[in-house]
Amino acid sequence: MAEVHAAESRARPHLLTTPAIASAALSAELGAPVLLKCENLQHTGSFKARGALSKVLALTPDELDRGIVTALTGNHGTAVAYAGAIVGVAPLVFVPDDANPTKLAAIERHGGRVEVHGSDSVESELAARRRAEDDGITFISPYNDAAVIGGQGTIGLELLEQVPDLAAVFVAVGGGGLASGVAAAIKAAAPAVRVIGCSPATSAVMYHSLRAGAILEMPSEPTLSDGTAGGVEPGTITFGLLASLLDDFVTVEERDIRRAFLELIEMEHLLVEGSAAMAYAAARTYARDQASHAEGTTAVILSGGNVGREKLRQILAERGGE
Amino acid sequence: MAEVHAAESRARPHLLTTPAIASAALSAELGAPVLLKCENLQHTGSFKARGALSKVLALTPDELDRGIVTALTGNHGTAVAYAGAIVGVAPLVFVPDDANPTKLAAIERHGGRVEVHGSDSVESELAARRRAEDDGITFISPYNDAAVIGGQGTIGLELLEQVPDLAAVFVAVGGGGLASGVAAAIKAAAPAVRVIGCSPATSAVMYHSLRAGAILEMPSEPTLSDGTAGGVEPGTITFGLLASLLDDFVTVEERDIRRAFLELIEMEHLLVEGSAAMAYAAARTYARDQASHAEGTTAVILSGGNVGREKLRQILAERGGE
Hints:
2 copies of one chain form a homodimer.
Chain A (H helix, E strand, L loop, with lengths): L1 H10 L8 E3 L1 H7 L3 E5 L9 H10 L3 H6 L1 E4 L4 H12 L4 E4 L5 H9 L3 E4 L4 H15 L2 E2 L6 H17 L3 E7 L4 H13 L4 E7 L4 H8 L24 H9 L2 E5 L1 H13 L7 H16 L7 E6 L6 H9 L5
Parallel strand pairs in A: 2-10, 3-4, 3-6, 4-5, 7-8, 7-10, 8-9
Antiparallel strand pairs in A: 1-2
Helix pairs in contact in A: 1-3, 1-8, 3-5, 3-8, 5-6, 8-9, 9-11, 12-13
């Protein structure tokens, strides 16, 4: 929680307080107010700007002089580029050779310098860590870092202020940085508010790890919720945080994620990325499986809105589940 | 202006103050701050909720008892259904036989009763007016009504509050209800703020009418900005308002509207309808054609976000102009 407040005081001037918008469709279906916390409208189009800013603004002038390196994992590369520009540093962003050109353009637009290393995101992250060690520069982790987690937690502070009768929060879990930060911020101030993690059923490494009591290495299937896909770093501090802070955890089927994605477009007028649609679907899945509801307002964190044109075209072209 | 304040006091409890979000891409390109006023996030997904609410809340109990009828023109049908639900009246919404099923579902979800009349929006509007006369019930015009225009003007009040250094506003013009209301609100309080109307070049009936000094009947070509397409009602009060209130008027080419639509998705993370993309494109077109810029912030009104899945699929599938 101290990390959240430290992040808040460092990063606030460069962050948007994103709107929490009533969901007409989901509120009607669940019979209780549901708000959508629109991190898709945050700078760089995702919550990742919060953590990256918190981290970069915590670096010493000497560390900044030596430089910053990170890897493209989802929106994190763009967020670090954005944060770097604010402190006048052009970060190195290592990307795999099949990286999405839209993301590369976004990184470069924010002043990041792209280097291609490896053929997937694990390889480029390893290369980035190696470069950091070799050259004595700072590697910025997407989630295994207290300052990054503290930055994501500023969403929790905003929610507590925006939603006086907040009862539950649905938050997507990949590496767990977002969920750890949000849960820390909320549980410190309002322990009765339930924080519920969610992951796609096809790639729920943290979910299975928490159930097993240890971080597992396990395969992931493809998912529309690509922002939360993939493995979990051994020894990540998010594991212990989530184990102690989350009230519950729900996994979501692909067909429900896709339905949520289309419903968000057509009924809520929001274009979000798969992981955000996953959290929206999770609120529905969870309500369906519960006998009783908490009193008060449910918030769903729409973690980001970065959807490339090709991806969008693909999702719309699929006919299943309609 | 009195109508705007009356609308504000009637409708405010049921309206969202929509966010005005910085446009990173357009601000960088224009070299001056540009804010996007997100009416796509308004109830029902468009500014039309403002005018419809203002009008319905101005009806007497006796008028409400007799009932309300309107026609589906863009988002207006849904907005009237939304407003009707608030006062406990289920409006009749006349639609043409080829109406978009997504829009019909939205009207019914808000409690409106759909009736099919005619084969295009002009015919169903005529039928709705006839029904209103025959049955002594109230017809709600999409733009030719002072209470409706006053409702749209509440956007202007919000902008003046949200943007202290507001210098210019770009606002889409179809029938002219939105532009009349916004211009009235802004010019009354801050006459130096420039209000610039915009229409697609292929369907710019009000633009040509204002130049000619009289409302013209003229053909319209198809446009991605379908929310502003079509003819202008003879004798509409918006004509005189726009003639006296607008500072300038710009027409926008289809390729520029399409580019704006895709840029809003990929760079601003906003899914908007064609007429909103048209206003965004207008700010760029206008800046390109002007020798000098005003000091201060430019606001672009993103009028709505209702894009059906099929329409979205079509736009993404077209390859031209990329």
